[in-house]
Amino acid sequence: MISKDMAWKDISQKILNKVKIDSLPLRKAIVIAGGDTAVDGQNETHGFVSFHEMRALAQGVGAVSAVARKINAPIYLVDTGLEQDTSSLRGVLMKKMRNGTHLGTPAMSVEEAKYAVSLGMSVGKSLALQKVQAVALGNVGERCMLSALSVTTAVLKDDLQGSVFDKSLKIQFDKLENFKENPVSVLSKTGSTEIAMLFGLIVQSVREGIYVIFDNAVTGAAALAAVTVYPEIIDNIISFAEYDEPLYKIQAKKLNQRGILKYNFTKAQGLGSALGLELLESIISV
Questions:
Q1: How much is the pLDDT for 208?
Q2: Which SUPFAM superfamilies is this protein grouped with (predicted)?
Q3: Could you tell me the domains of the chain?
């Protein structure tokens, strides 16, 4: 629902001030990246939960699929690192770097992280060729909050050093390189394949003039990482989501986002981002 705590008029005006889209209807797309985290740690499901989530999306089942049909936005599903094999799922682009990332550091090799970022940039270029004006981001993956937490803490290590976030992880963040100077290396140590892929997607999409909408701590980690390396892209990053998840709230504050779409669930494969596309189009059309 739309949050009563936020001034709809103020948020709408903020969006209008920074979004420069003249033609309607808005040309939209949804990209959902799949990747499992810490598969060699405590792992009772072995990727079958995320596999079934991806299969449901491929079959057009679920809330985000319903929203996509309503707003006439195609959904692109990309398997960057799910533990299970998705080659049998029609409609899933299988670009698997590995079958899930490691627990701890490094999460993956530098080469795998580079490939993930490059894949994301290729997807961004493809969206531009299709004349997409705004893209919504989503994710599927088991234990994805671990990688979201690791990446966010690595990016904001000076701000979060000694915090509950820092203390909850077994990574020595003080020994990591500066994220802005060595993003791929740090992503390889702390990230996941889908966050690295979304990082590349965000950077390239904004370079192509596309607006990017995120909605949770995983897609938010990718957005925060992208803006940290390329601060000039921040005006093309949008989130309408508002919910009480501490990590997401830190990301949203750092990215100057004030949500108006309030809900109490955090894993919905990009539902909040997809609804954000509809809100964006509504604001522009008024």
A1: 98
A2: Nicotinate mononucleotide:5,6-dimethylbenzimidazole phosphoribosyltransferase (CobT)
A3: 8-285 (3.40.50.10210)
